[in-house]
Amino acid sequence: MDYRFRLWLMKNNKKVFGEGPLKLLKKVEELGSLRQAALSMQMSYSKAWKIMKHVEEELHIKLLERKIGGKTGGGSTITREAKDLIKNYEALVASVNKKIEEDVNKYFMI
Amino acid sequence: MDYRFRLWLMKNNKKVFGEGPLKLLKKVEELGSLRQAALSMQMSYSKAWKIMKHVEEELHIKLLERKIGGKTGGGSTITREAKDLIKNYEALVASVNKKIEEDVNKYFMI
DNA sequence: CATCGTTATTCTTTTGCGCAGATAACGCAT
DNA sequence: ATGCGTTATCTGCGCAAAAGAATAACGATG
């Protein structure tokens, strides 16, 4: 039996971090710009911006180091805290996924 | 750190069973009627009906024993297979939840 | 044979909310 | 001072999901 799961970190009963923000953060890290990250995922910039803002506000951590203006127009790099968040969330998801796979095979042997 | 997760059983890359159908099935078991189950969850009957139909078609199992007509108008009871599905899915979710709780505390100690 | 409340099925209407797109602000370089 | 590509914000609209209406069939019971 196949399965799929989603795992969110919550705060004040609101979704605060999950696959969406994770993917976006990693793209920013790779491309150095929130705009480029959004474009590369066919996501509107405004949506990407809202996601980052939301996570930062709810989690009270700074994810992006923004630079506005300048020769290149600016850009964003991700903070140390963001890198830690990525690392921990990915480790968490990997561990959980392993367990789910085992259990699905246990309870749904087909 | 709080968390939330959703776990779906998949078939042909489509969601086939999850929390929604589970809750509905249990309500039918409790109330003996799909209509009453939908009402009790402030869900439209057509939606409830579609959910049951979808699961049955995709999973190729019969979930409800329908009775149309009669003094009380009829009603639905859930099949043995449906009971097994409930039991296994709940056991799976419980086991996974336990693991997630451990891991969340391990990776997000706050 | 009329009544009743269900299941079954399809169609139309509504609603909410996610999203894209427009606009502003910014600052370095030339 | 002009241009450029960012970040930052706001607004209104599209569209899918959901609700609801309409319709039919059913069968025990009085």
Chart the SSEs and their pairings.
The structure is a homodimer of 110-residue chains.
Chain A: E1 2-11, E2 14-17, H1 19-31, H2 34-40, H3 45-59, E3 64-68, E4 74-78, H4 80-107
Antiparallel strand pairs in A: 1-2, 3-4
The structure holds a DNA duplex (30 and 30 nucleotides).
Q: What would you say about this model in short?
A:
The structure is a homodimer of 110-residue chains. The first copy, chain A, is elongated and about 60 Å long. In chain A, 28% of the residues are buried.
Q: What this model shows, in words?
A:
The structure is a homodimer of 110-residue chains. Chain A has 110 residues and is of the alpha+beta class. Chain A has one domain (9-107): Winged helix-like DNA-binding domain superfamily/Winged helix DNA-binding domain (Arc Repressor Mutant, subunit A). Chain A is built from four helices and four strands; from the N terminus they run E-E-H-H-H-E-E-H. Chain A has a two-stranded antiparallel sheet with strand order 1-2. In chain A, strands 3-4 form a two-stranded antiparallel sheet. In chain A, strand 3 (64-68) and strand 4 form a beta hairpin. The interface between A and B is medium-sized, with 26 and 26 residues. Strand 1 (2-11) of chain A pairs antiparallel with strand 1 (2-11) of chain B. Chain A binds a DNA duplex (30 and 30 nucleotides) through residues 33-36, 43-47, 49-50, 53, 64, 66-76.
The CATH class of chain A is identified as: Mainly Alpha
Beta-strand percent range of chain A? 15-25%
Strand order of the largest sheet of chain A: 1-2
Helix share of residues of chain A?
55-70%
Major sheet of chain A: 2 strands, antiparallel
Question: What is the 3D shape of chain A?
Answer: elongated
Q: What is the average per-residue confidence, as pLDDT of chain A, rounded to a whole number?
A: 95
**Count of individual beta strands of chain A:** 4
Give the topology string of chain A: H per helix, E per strand: EEHHHEEH
Structural class of chain A: alpha+beta
Q: CATH topology of chain A, what is it called? A: Arc Repressor Mutant, subunit A
**Oligomeric grouping of the chains:** homodimer
Q: Give me the CATH superfamily of chain A.
A: Winged helix-like DNA-binding domain superfamily/Winged helix DNA-binding domain
Radius of gyration of chain A: 17 Å
Which stretches of chain A are poorly predicted, pLDDT < 50 over at least 5 residues? none
